[in-house]
Amino acid sequence: MGGELVVLKKSRNGADPLFRPEEARALAPTAESVFLGLAGDAGRFGIALDPEATKALKGRPDLFVTDLRSIAVQGLVAPEHLAPLAEAKALLAWHARHRFCANCGAATNVSQAGWKRECPSCKVEHFPRTDPVVIMLAIDGDRCLLGRAGRFVANMWSCLAGFVEPGESIEEAARRETLEEAGIVCGEVKYFRSQPWPFPMSLMIGCHARATNSDITVDREELEDARWFTRDEVALMFVGRHPEGISIPPPIAIAHHIIRAWVEEGDGVFG
Amino acid sequence: MGGELVVLKKSRNGADPLFRPEEARALAPTAESVFLGLAGDAGRFGIALDPEATKALKGRPDLFVTDLRSIAVQGLVAPEHLAPLAEAKALLAWHARHRFCANCGAATNVSQAGWKRECPSCKVEHFPRTDPVVIMLAIDGDRCLLGRAGRFVANMWSCLAGFVEPGESIEEAARRETLEEAGIVCGEVKYFRSQPWPFPMSLMIGCHARATNSDITVDREELEDARWFTRDEVALMFVGRHPEGISIPPPIAIAHHIIRAWVEEGDGVFG
Hints:
By secondary structure, chain A is α+β, with helices and mostly antiparallel strands.
């Protein structure tokens, strides 16, 4: 991997992310490598390549050089490779942004096969941890609240989301974010499921939440817009037939499953 | 707050954590302060005091100087003060350990009322985020798995726990930790509830998990011991009558509630 780019070998069935160590080192100058468990009985590692040299590999006919999101959405690699690729991206991005000790400012060293950095000066250990993010669907009877952020692809709407802050529970974070971004107060919050999301290193915690008011006030710094949609409207998004051409995220994103569960089960999502 | 210590005023009903700004500054040399929302219509701030000078305050007859865990367990302050105190401890501990930029090593500056640090050199922003930790009770029919870490108070046993790693979901983390620490494989994992825990800055995510084997192999680097206990035995721990004098954590800890739910509901915890 180099910056946001992942290098894959073209193969008969699509693309293959496995290189022998000497093949990987021949691609571009390398920095850290991280251990990702075993593939069969061989060790599997993620290797950081120089970002500029990686861009230059885009011209090579024997390689695919693209970003992880495209690999996942387009299904370029066999499904068993997706989790290690995501793990590699998360860990290598962490190394790239954490070469110095936050406690004393000294340059730190990699240890534990890429799962730790140690400060030679003040001896503090630094670990690659994940950021918990709540992602929730507020529900008002037969309607749900979807929002649109400026960074989304055109016409896509999704659940609201935000980082869990120090001092709050998952349920409190879901209520605070929905109130801050859309002015909607929520009562009951029900955990749905979770998913790692390596952009850069988040743990997405999916919830359904019962709205107790309906007048939306959009925080325009966070969102372009937020609206209520009926279950029938959302059902049309799943089959690509919403009258305004609105779509929701693909199945690779937990938002897809949070929304689908409500379309299929309605109030049943609260158990 | 100074290091692990919190300074409270003695009052007629116990202790009061609220000082006027000039009173707080008169206690000891101060470092960062963090905004904690409003108390009535006045701003409430957490203020970092010099740790050595704070220790010296222990002799003052008008003050309580103790650690946050003792304040919580002994109920020294009114319940509405506990969450802001925990938030202050988490944020001030973060500032103390993050004075330098992990990206470039330069000294960083506080901004956003203590909720951000900015690097004047490379311009990277650093936020105080929380570490997700899974804490789970493995259940094998009428028995549950409790472990004892060396740092626990004498005779206390609790749920197993560990950090969620990059690339895994809550459910996968609960299974991995239970397997690593006790050799127990789990199938279904059911989310229970979550709780912030400012030691130093964790989000505790409580779960119940179905064990699919029963032979325990203890990881002695992580735990002193791990054992199966029957529901009847655990019920005796709640009333302080376990024959070996074993106790479980107090209600301030989410582990208490995870264990209590199973004692009271049995298999009902899986919904």
